[in-house]
């Protein structure tokens, strides 16, 4: 819960929960401000008996959380396995501890401050049970992390240290004590270096998920070590500005069976330099190993990737279920050519994100209307225009021949696009993000959007989409639960009517800056949008507060005129 609750109301709720397994008390200012929550011993005992099944507790973003409140809250959760203190104002400095605990004893928790030393005492007592800790966006430093990972009997499965900018190599090196770690999040922690990655990749053999997105000083040399993690299933290296396309290719797509002695000496130094390290790395032919076989989730957002890197990734990780290539800088790598290679190779994909990849157009998404989509053409294909003009593919219900589709064929002469692979090959697609792909039009929506399992679709700021494409989309994708059409300037009331009349599972609808949507669309939503839970109509200038009446009692609405 993240809402305004009095302490009395929260206690009453907790007394009524008999088999609760997960409890999030996040950003709950009112019930913590007085410091009196659970100060009644009888209440604490009753709730503790009710919450024996509780295994996950989050106290995130609570500025009024103190040692005293923390101790009371964890006392009612005797069997915790997961604890989140994300974005809490924890004092890690020993001077603060000495100020509030002059006798160096924690017998009675302070009501004025939340200290790491108090939290650490709890972790020591609960060490055999605790498996997941979250210290995201806190001031945890090297000394605190060293104390944490060295706790006797503590064998963590996951540790989240996102935005922990006090951490650097000496502290991160101590993570080697937690050999059991499967999930490690160091994203946005600006002092993570190549040397940090070396320690992690050499020693944490059981890692299945590693997130180093926005680690600003990680270079090609650092990510080259990731192939050591043979059990890795999830990798996020998004937004690391020093990574090159060649470095990503070498790290993810090439296998080096043994380090040279020179490379080992380089890595022993605290300061690792990309160029010198790469010069000492012996590169061999691409070859599949257990790293290739296990990786299922890959996030490469906001990187400078070329076409060769995208092709290499598609060929190397055919079992990928999640791929994020959004905001690839200047969209060098994500083109009509490479998107078709993705369609050809990555048929197991469930989530595909290519946000703001302007070089992807209808030509790439539709596969040019060529036949034999499931069986690639090996002979030299006829001209793209001849293939498109008037061809009907009955299996997929595609009829190509409109003026817009002829324009696709004409433009295709200028680029070498392998024919025959379209979005339709991704049969199990559940989430697709094409937002800000300005060259995607109704042609794609009409011809290659038929997905029985598609749940989330983002077409925000695809400004060429109209009611024609949305008519086809809503007929052929009935499972959609979250639809984003923000910034689609040609979306009108009739589009909203199609959506709410046909998409009966729809829970979230985003219409920000859809200037042609009026109160008439809201009438359609009131009548047919029975499952809708969230509606974003910010900056929809033709919508009025009067029109929103009747929706506010059952739908969370984001609304502003500006």
TrEMBL record:
Listed Pfam families: DUF7885
Organism: Fopius arisanus
Name of the protein in its database record: F-box/LRR-repeat protein 13-like isoform X2
Annotated Gene3D superfamilies: Ribonuclease Inhibitor
Gene: LOC105268300
Gene Ontology BP, a term: SCF-dependent proteasomal ubiquitin-dependent protein catabolic process
UniProt xrefs under SUPFAM superfamilies: RNI-like
GO cellular component: SCF ubiquitin ligase complex
Domain F-box/LRR-repeat protein 15-like leucin rich repeat, first and last residues per copy: 428-553
């Amino acid at each position: 819960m993240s809402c305004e609750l009095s302490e009395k109301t929260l206690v009453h709720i907790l007394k009524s929960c008999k088999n609760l397994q997960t409890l999030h008390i996040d950003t709950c200012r009112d019930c913590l401000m007085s410091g009196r929550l659970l100060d009644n011993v009888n209440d604490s005992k009753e709730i503790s008996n009710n919450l024996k099944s509780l295994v996950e507790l989050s106290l995130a973003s609570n500025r009024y959380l103190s040692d005293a409140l923390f101790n009371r809250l964890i006392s009612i959760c005797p069997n915790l396995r997961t604890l989140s203190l994300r974005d809490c104002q924890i004092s890690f400095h020993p001077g603060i501890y000495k100020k509030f605990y002059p006798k160096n004893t924690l017998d009675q928790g302070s009501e004025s401050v939340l200290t790491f030393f108090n939290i650490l005492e709890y972790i020591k007592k609960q060490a055999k049970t605790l498996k997941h800790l979250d210290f995201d966006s806190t001031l945890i430093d090297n000394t605190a992390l060293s104390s944490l990972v060295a706790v006797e009997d503590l064998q963590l499965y996951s540790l989240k240290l996102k935005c922990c900018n006090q951490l650097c190599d000496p502290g991160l090196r101590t993570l080697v004590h937690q050999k059991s770690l499967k999930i490690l999040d160091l994203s946005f922690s600006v002092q993570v270096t190549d040397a940090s990655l070396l320690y992690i990749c050499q020693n944490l053999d059981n890692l299945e998920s590693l997130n180093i997105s926005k680690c600003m000083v990680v270079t090609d040399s650092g990510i080259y070590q990731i192939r050591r993690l043979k059990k890795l299933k999830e990798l996020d290296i998004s937004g690391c500005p020093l990574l090159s396309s060649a470095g990503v290719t070498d790290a993810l797509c090439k296998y080096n069976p043994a380090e040279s002695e020179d490379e080992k000496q380089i890595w022993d130094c605290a300061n690792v330099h990309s160029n010198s390290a790469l010069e000492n790395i012996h590169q061999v032919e691409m070859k599949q190993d257990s790293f290739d076989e296990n990786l299922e989730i890959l996030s490469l957002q906001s990187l400078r990737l070329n076409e060769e890197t995208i092709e290499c990734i598609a060929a190397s990780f055919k079992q990928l279920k999640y791929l994020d290539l959004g905001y690839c800088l200047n969209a060098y790598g994500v083109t009509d050519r490479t998107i078709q290679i993705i369609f050809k190779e990555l048929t197991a994909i469930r989530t595909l994100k290519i946000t703001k990849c302007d070089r992807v157009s209808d030509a790439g998404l539709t596969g040019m209307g060529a036949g034999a989509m499931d069986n690639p053409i090996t002979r030299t294909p006829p001209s793209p225009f001849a293939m498109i003009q008037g061809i009907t593919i009955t299996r997929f219900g595609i009829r190509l021949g409109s003026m817009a589709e002829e324009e696709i064929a004409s433009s295709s002469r200028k680029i070498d696009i392998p024919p025959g692979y379209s979005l339709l090959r991704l049969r199990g697609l559940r989430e697709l993000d094409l937002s800000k792909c300005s060259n995607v039009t109704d042609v794609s929506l009409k011809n290659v959007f038929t997905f029985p399992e598609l749940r989330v679709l983002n077409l925000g700021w695809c400004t060429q989409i109209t009611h024609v494409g949305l008519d086809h989309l809503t007929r052929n994708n009935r499972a959609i639960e979250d639809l984003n059409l923000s910034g689609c300037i040609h979306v009108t009331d009739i589009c909203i009517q199609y959506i709410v009349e046909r998409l009966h599972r729809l829970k979230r609808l985003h219409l920000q800056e859809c200037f042609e949507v009026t109160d008439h669309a809201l009438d359609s939503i009131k009548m047919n949008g029975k499952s809708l839970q969230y509606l974003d109509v910010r900056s929809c200038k033709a919508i009025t507060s009067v029109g929103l009446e009747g929706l506010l009692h059952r739908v969370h609405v984001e609304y502003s005129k500006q």
